[in-house]
Specification:
The chain is an alpha/beta fold and 413 residues long. The protein has 15 helices and 13 strands.
C-alpha cells in the first residue's frame, strides 16, 4: 500500500520537521558554546562563522533589483553570499569578487538552507517570511525586504511583509500603509527606510546613455500580467484582434509566469496569432530594448506600467479589472490602493465600452499633454531620491551591520 500525502499536508509536515530540527540544532549549538565558554575562561567568539550579508532571490528576474546593490557592495569591499533558486541566474556568472553565488533548485533543500542560516543581515524581495516554509533563522540578526516594483507593498498575499525587521521604501504612501497594517495587527514597528529605487535608477542611466530610439512606425507594446484578472484572462484573443486592426506595429510580451501557469492559453494564442509583419512575440530576459522602441504600453496591474511611464516618460493604457483584494494585505486597509489613484494620471483606461475604438484611444493617449504632467506627479510620489537609490541602500545595510556587530561586541564584554 502506497501512502499518499497531499502537498498542503506535506508542506505542513516539512515545516514541523524543520522546527523540531531547528530547535535541536540551536540547543546543541548553545550547549557547545557554553561548554567552550567555560573551558576558555570566557574568551570564546560566538559568531566567528557568521556571514555578514546574504541576499536571497527566488527567481533570476530579480537580478536587476540586486545587481546594482551587489556592484556597490563589491566596490566597497563587502562580502555577500547570494542564494538563488534559478540555475540560470546571471549572478552565477557575475564578475564581482566579493559576491559568492549559491544555487539551490530543490525547495526542501533551499528552505532548509535558509532556515538554518548564520548571518547578520538577509536582504530579499521575497514575501511570506515566517508565513510559509521560509522561517526566520535563530542565527540571523536582521531581515530586510526590498520591493521589486515602484508601487504598493500591500499587494502581497496576506502577512507577506509582517515578519521582516525593515523595509526599504520609495514613497510616503508605502510607509503609511505599512504603519496602518502594524497597528491593525498589533505588530512591532519595523524600520522603514526611504531609499529610492536602485534598479529604476539603473534603467534611467542606461536610457540616458542610449539616446533616442531609432525612427520607427508607431509601436504598441502589450505586456499583461498573468492570472484570471489580467488582460488575457479578461479579454482573451479579442485584444489581439482589435490591436491588429489599428494597423500599428504590435509587440506582445506576456509575463514570464504565463509560460508556466498559463502555458496552454499562451501557446494557443501564439498559434492563432503567429508572428507576422505587424506582430511580434517578445520573450527577452532584458526588457530594456522592447520598452525603448515602444510608443505606448497596454497592461493591467503589472509593475512594468511604472517602469514604462516613469523611466521612459511614455503613456500607458491600463485595464481596471474586478480585482479581488481578499487574499492581499490591501484588503485590511480603508485607504484606497495607491495604484488606483496613479493609473488615471498615467494614461487611459481600456474597458468594454471603448475596446472597439482602441486606435483612437491610443492616439489620444499619446497626444494628450495632461498625461505628461500626470507622470511627473506620480514620479514625485513613488520615486524618492532619483539616482541615489543604490548608494542609500548600501549605506543603510552597512550602517545596520555596524550597529548589530557593535552590540554583539558589547554583550560579549
Amino acid at each position: 500500500m502506497i501512502l499518499y500525502i497531499d502537498p498542503g499536508t506535506g508542506s505542513m509536515l516539512f515545516t514541523i520537521l524543520i522546527g523540531v530540527i531547528g530547535t535541536a540544532v540551536y540547543s546543541l549549538r548553545m550547549l557547545f558554546i557554553k561548554i567552550q565558554f567555560k573551558l576558555t575562561g570566557g574568551k570564546v567568539t560566538v559568531n566567528q562563522n557568521k556571514i555578514p550579508f546574504v541576499i536571497f532571490s527566488d527567481n533570476k528576474r530579480y537580478w536587476s533589483v540586486f545587481e546594482p546593490i551587489c556592484r556597490e557592495m563589491d566596490r566597497r569591499g563587502k562580502d555577500i553570499l547570494y542564494i538563488t533558486a534559478s540555475p540560470d541566474d546571471p549572478v552565477l556568472e557575475c564578475p564581482y569578487s566579493h559576491v559568492t553565488a549559491e544555487c539551490i533548485e530543490n525547495n526542501n533543500k533551499l528552505f532548509t538552507r535558509l532556515n538554518f542560516l548564520n548571518a547578520t543581515i538577509v536582504l530579499s524581495t521575497t514575501p511570506g517570511l515566517e508565513v510559509y516554509q521560509w522561517k526566520r533563522s535563530r542565527d540571523v540578526d536582521f531581515y530586510v525586504h526590498i520591493p521589486h516594483a515602484a508601487s504598493e507593498v500591500i499587494l502581497y498575499k496576506m502577512f507577506g511583509i509582517d515578519y521582516y525587521d525593515a523595509i526599504l521604501l520609495s514613497g510616503d504612501f508605502q510607509e503609511r500603509d505599512v504603519r496602518n497594517l502594524e497597528k491593525l495587527r498589533s505588530l512591532p514597528e519595523k524600520e522603514l527606510v526611504k531609499v529610492g529605487i536602485p534598479y529604476m535608477d539603473e534603467m534611467a542611466k542606461r536610457l540616458e546613455k542610449s539616446g533616442l530610439a531609432s525612427e520607427h512606425e508607431r509601436t504598441v507594446l502589450l505586456a499583461p500580467s498573468w492570472g484570471s484578472s489580467a488582460i488575457f484572462g479578461v479579454y482573451g484573443s479579442r485584444i489581439l484582434e482589435v490591436l491588429l486592426k489599428t494597423g500599428y506595429h504590435v509587440i506582445v510580451r506576456p509575463h514570464p509566469q504565463s509560460f508556466t501557469s498559463e502555458k496552454n492559453m499562451i501557446e494557443k494564442l501564439m498559434e492563432e496569432y503567429p508572428e507576422q509583419e505587424k506582430l511580434e512575440w517578445n520573450r527577452d530576459t532584458d526588457n530594456f530594448e522592447v520598452l525603448h522602441r515602444s510608443d505606448i504600453l497596454i497592461s493591467d496591474f503589472s509593475g512594468v506600467v511604472f517602469e514604462f511611464a516613469l523611466i521612459y516618460d511614455k503613456p500607458v493604457i491600463y485595464t481596471n479589472p474586478d480585482f479581488d483584494l481578499a487574499p492581499y494585505d490591501a484588503w485590511w486597509l480603508d485607504t484606497p490602493v495607491w495604484t488606483t489613484t496613479a493609473l488615471p494620471r498615467l494614461g487611459c483606461e481600456l474597458n468594454e465600452d471603448n475596446m472597439e475604438s482602441l486606435k483612437e484611444l491610443i492616439d489620444s493617449c499619446i497626444d494628450d499633454e495632461k498625461y505628461a504632467e500626470g507622470r511627473r506627479e506620480v514620479k514625485e510620489e513613488t520615486w524618492a531620491y532619483f539616482g541615489e537609490g543604490c548608494c542609500r541602500t548600501v549605506d543603510y545595510l552597512i550602517k545596520k551591520y555596524e550597529e548589530i556587530t557593535a552590540c554583539d561586541k558589547e554583550e560579549k564584554g
